[in-house]
Amino acid sequence: MEDFWQKKSSKEFLIFAEKPATGDEKAVSAVLQKFISAYGKNDVFEISNLLSNSALVKGIATRGVFINKKDYIALLKNNLENIRLLTISDAVVRVNNGDAKVYGVMTIHSLDGQIGESDIFLKLFEKDKQWLISQIIVQDLAWSR
pLDDT per residue over 71-100, tens digit each? Predict the structure, then answer.
């Protein structure tokens, strides 16, 4: 059995509760991995490319209300450099007729040493054989040191 700390400190930044099985689940997982990687590289352009034009985001940084893609990208431009590492663990991917939902636990490591953990929910849809994120909800981020 794998040690919890070893699992959390491994080089994997996306850990699944259930291994993606179908081609669509694997494609959605690849988009999620790109999203996480873009956070790690402070690549706002890549994050923007993974979001649909009508994407909505809700979380602590948005003060608990949905904001559109343009406002989310502006928010990231001002705050992304404060994030050292973002991971998602216990991810579950569900795909049905061109729509996907991802549930998991997001952990953020900030540059000042704080660690935040929260449930995360993402919706995606397939357009022209490309999966795009249409909604992100981050719930009740709890910070610790």
Answer: 999 999 988 888 888 999 989 999 999 999
Note whether 101 and 29 are within 8 A (CB): no
What is the rounded distance in angstroms from the CA atom of residue 15 to the CA atom of residue 118?
15
The secondary element (H helix, E strand) that includes residue 93 is strand 83-96
Nearest CA-CA partner of 84 in 56, 51, 109, 113: 109
Q: Which residues contact 143 (CB under 8 A, 6 or more apart)?
A: 114, 115, 116
Long-range CB contacts for residues 43-51, cutoff 8 Å, separation at least 24 = 44/73, 44/76, 44/77, 44/80, 47/73, 47/76, 48/73, 50/132, 50/133, 51/132, 51/133, 51/134
| Cα–Cα dist 44/7, whole Å | 28
Structure-derived torsion over alpha carbons of residues 131, 67, 80, 63, reported in degrees to the nearest 10: -130
Output the CA angle 24-27-31, nearest 5 degrees.
140
Query: Quick check: 141 pLDDT over 90?
Result: no
Residue for token digits 């940084």? Answer: 61
| Secondary element (H or E) of residue 27 | helix 23-40
